[in-house]
Amino acid sequence: VQLQASGGGLVQAGGSLRLSCAASGRTFRSYVMGWFRQPPGKAREFVAAVKWGDNPPYYADSVKGRFTISRDSAKDTVTLQMNHLKPEDTATYYCAADRQGLWPTEMHEYDFWGKGTLVTVSS
User: Which pLDDT score is estimated for 57?
Assistant: First the structure.
């Protein structure tokens, strides 16, 4: 069982990045898929999550209107499109999968985690 995040890098403030998370080893089509991030020296925090079907996604207030989460259930991938990036978005970003999906914004609910990908936004 593996979640692999990719797409991080260095970008100037106001720019965009697209993160992707690919699942392997099992299907996550019925799981909630989420993105979390951990800024340098700070705790990990919720960013966005998406359930299956037509359920609306969840976003942290700090990224609403700038980030968009989407999933391709056929390919078992989830994407985080990040626009209008700010220096405070600098963090290691992690994708995760939640089997039950009762509390999509709660980190401790997630069962599987991928290794992070670093996003650095310069001012």
Answer: 95
Of the candidates 100, 120, 86, the residue with the CA atom closest to the CA atom of residue 14: 86
What residues in the chain have per-residue pLDDT under 50? none
**Distance between CA 25 and CA 61 in Å, rounded?**
33
Q: In what order do the strands lie in the sheet with 77-82?
A: 2-6, 17-24, 77-82, 67-72
Read off the tokens for 3: 């979640």
Angle, alpha carbons 64-121-50 (nearest 5°): 35
CA-closest candidate to residue 22, choices 33, 36, 9: 33
102 token code pair: 């009762």
The answer to whether 4 touches 24, Cβ cutoff 8 Å, is yes
